[in-house]
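User: I'll paste a sequence; please echo it back and then give the predicted structure.

Assistant: Echoing your sequence first, then the prediction.
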Amino acid sequence: MGKGVSVETLLSGAGYFIWPLGACSLLALFLVVERALAFRTDRVIPPAIIAAAMRGETAAADVGDDSAAARLVVRWRSGAAGEALKAFARAEVVRLQRGLHLLDSVVAASPLIGLLGTVAGLAAIFPSQGVPDQATLTRGVGLALSTTMIGLFIAIPSLIAANWLHRRLEVLSSRLEVLVESLESSRR
């Protein structure tokens, strides 16, 4: 196998497309870290609240924290029941989803920006005045390959992270549904 491409060569070959690709990369990193921290179980559904609800002791559960589960218990204590309580649970899930649409957009946009760089690089290869010179050919091919690679380097890990976060959200959503059902059954 030949020598690999250096990061410096890859970045310099991307031309001005490095700016939107860099923005996509930073946005994806920020969103993945922020949502991973926000989706921790103890931040969304503290074990003490779930345990108290399962034992039917929700009236004594400490809801002093600012978790989704605590907000549901507070709503339940203030009289919300049935479909109203389920609507509050759905609202909490929607609140947890914030930012995930941006991550999905990064997953879609970064390879498209890379493809746009590919098209721009290939367009630079074929000037209107005939056969390109060696430098123009090298720059055009470098732009095409660099932007495609960087776009895919951003999209692939972002896609894996987005899938993990969406699955994590499903798990948290189902646990909030269990909490709602526990609260409802303790009222009967």
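DSSP finds eight helices and no strands in the chain. The mean pLDDT is 83.
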